Every structure is written in C-alpha cells, then in structure tokens.
C-alpha cells in the first residue's frame, strides 16, 4: 500500500498511532495546533518547565515532520523589529484565519500589559504582532478562543497573578477591535484549561476545566443573541471532571479527548451530540496512553474529502510527541435541538464556585514531571502490583461507566414517567372540564325538553280550538245556506202573488 493512501484502511471510531518517517519533534504539552491543507502545524508548548518557540509541521500524506523557519515581519510588528524568533509560548490559543495562524494569549517571557495577538503567515513564513484596539483583555493563560464567522470569542483563563477569570471578550478580525460581552444569569465558575465550542453560530458551549482546587465536569451555555448563561442538563454516559483536555467539533458532534485531575488521566474519548446534549464514550485507551494526558491537542482535517481527527503531544508523567489519528464515522444529525434548561440549573454554577474557594490549592502537572529512580530500577514484583492496580482501576472505571449508564437510563425513565404523569393530570383536568360541560348540556337539554312538551300541549290545544272554529265555520255556512234558501223562497212566494194581482187587472 502506498504511504499516501494509509488512511483508507483505518477502522472507524478508533485511535491509531501513526508511524512516521524520519525524526520527530521534541515532546511537549500545552502547545497549539491547527490543520491547513493536509498539514498539521504545532506551535510552541512547554517541556520541563521551559517554553518552546518552534513551529513543527506534520504532512499527513508523506507522514513526515519538518520545521517551519520563520522570520520577523519588520513592517508589522509594532516596534518589535529586533525580535528574530517567534516568542516562546505555552498555554496559548491558536485560530486559523485565511492563510494566517493567529496566536492569542499564553505564558511567555514578554512584559505586555494586555493580551498579545501574534500571527504566522504560512505562505511567507513571516510572523509578527497584530496591533489591536478597544477593550483589550488582560494577559492570560489557559483560556479558550472560539472562531465564530469573523469574530473570536475569548473566555476565562488565569492571569499573571494567578487570578481565575470567567469574563467574555470578542475580537473582530476585520477591524482587530476588542469588546467586552456583558452577560446575564449565572456564568460558569472562574476556570482555565477548559474547552469551548460553537453550535449553530449562536450558542457558546463551555465544558470542564479547573480552578486552583476543583476540577469541573459541568456544561455551560451562552446564548449570543440574548447574552444569557445557562447550565443545561445533559444525558448519556458518565463524564468525569477534567482539565487540560482538547476538543473539536464536526457537524453536530463535539469530540473531547484527554485531560486529567492531577491524579489520573482521562482515557475515554467523549462525544457530545450538541443537538440533544447526550454524552457517549467513543473509544477508551489505556490509563498511561498519550491520549490520556493533559495539554494535548486535537484537530480535524480533510484527506481525500473525508474528515479525520489528529491528536498530538500531552503529559501524563511523561511528555509525548506521537501523532494519533481517528476516522470518525458520520453520525445522524437530524435530531431536535434542546437548549432550554431548568431555571434552577443556573444556581449550580454559584454552588460550584463556592465549593471551589473552600478547597486547597491545585497541584501543578509540572510537579509530576520527575522520574522516580526507584521505579526506573524496577523490581518485577513492584511492576506486577502496578499492573494489577491498573487492571483493578480499569475494572472500576468500567463498572462506574455501567452504573452511570443504568443511572442515565433510570433518569430517562423517570423523566418519561414524569411526563406521562403530567399528561395524565392534564387529561384528568380536561375530562373533568368535559364532564362539567356535559352536566350543563344535560340540564340545558332537560329545560329544552320541558319547553318542547309545553309547546306540544299548546299545539294540541290550538288544534282543538281550530277544530271548534272549523265546526263553527261549517255551522255558519249551513246557516247561511238555509237563510239563502229561505230568502229565495220568500222572493218567489212574493212575486207570484203580485203577478196574480196584475193578471186580473188585464
């Protein structure tokens, strides 16, 4: 099989490590990634507490890595013409805008008072600082940046004084002007290392992240038309708290990979159907797999017209520089949209925030980046115990997932029962109303029947009167005839006498 056709034999919905040709880039986490024309661009990141400034490019056709050599654009870097190299940065966000990669925020050695926006021109291999205006946000790390049309929506993060943020800013890429979005209702608790996605170019969705003490698994929604926050209820598989995970959307599906809680990584790849808010587990890797890491990246790209997922890097006690690919199976997206949440759900964010403030400081993943000489020398007995512990943890996780599925099923049945009960109550009220109407109609019919009976009696009496009138008419007619006969007879009798008298005179 040719190298360029390696993707044709991939199994759907399964992560596969890619065997690359040649050297790999340095392992890292908290970098930024984007796919442009079948090439995966990796920018910056962190390793052993040191920020990186390189740009690495993975060709998905030839399966080879290369470095992108950049030069400063002295005409557009706003006074930074002396800078020869791209600033070393980690914890930043990156957006593709045409042939440019825009880098927002992050942790670097610069002394900017406001959030910096850098650009990398892929065509010219130049970089520079973009001058922005308006209400420019403060510098931050671990924020989310989401592209919506020609705007970038920035949410949350952690500023230089380690203050956690939950503000919302928008950058117009046409005018390079910042604005602050004023929202209502209860926002998510301040956090960083979360993920964000857009649905329908109207709803901004925030998932997970952490404070200095608490890891979140909550889902929040900002309606960009009403500027109202809500916390919609989701269903499906159990979703564990996590931070440092990565997400990407394809149609109605939001894919979530990796993350952790400073104790364990998250080995499951989650998919949220954004139309009906149902979580499902797509794939599960081993606990110490690079895909079960914090600070990894996730991108989507087209190869021969088909969409693929690419993941790179991460840290789970060991830094990774491997590339993994998944061939997601097309999902049916003809589902109804349900973004209305119960009114009381928004209060959960404030409860979560209060709980977060009551806990101790969060451990840093970088503190775990210390190899244990004792474990590296390793005795087989200790390794066997570790394997057994991992197996037990995996069984426990699977049991928890099964329990979560049962609970989700019970919750769904409970909802259906509640809906049936509500429908029954409504039908009962409607039946009572109809019964009341029937009683009124029966009373009305009884009154009508009484009136009809009276009318019938009246008609009968009128018939009797009419008969009497007819009889009188007949008597009158007979009397009139008798009178007529009598008058005729009298006239005849009177005429004969006069004629008798007259004849005698002649």
UniProtKB/TrEMBL annotation:
Disordered, as annotated region: 484-506
TM region(s), chain numbering: none
Residues in Acyl-CoA-binding domain copies: 386-489
Coiled coil location: 417-482
Record flagged with keyword Coiled coil: yes
Family annotation (InterPro entries): ACBP4-6_C (IPR056819), Gal_Oxase/kelch_b-propeller (IPR011043), Kelch-typ_b-propeller (IPR015915)
Keyword annotations from UniProtKB, A to Z: Coiled coil, Kelch repeat, Repeat
UniProt cross-references to SUPFAM superfamilies, sorted A to Z: Galactose oxidase, central domain, Kelch motif
Name listed for the protein in its UniProt record: Acyl-CoA-binding domain-containing protein
Organism: Pisum sativum
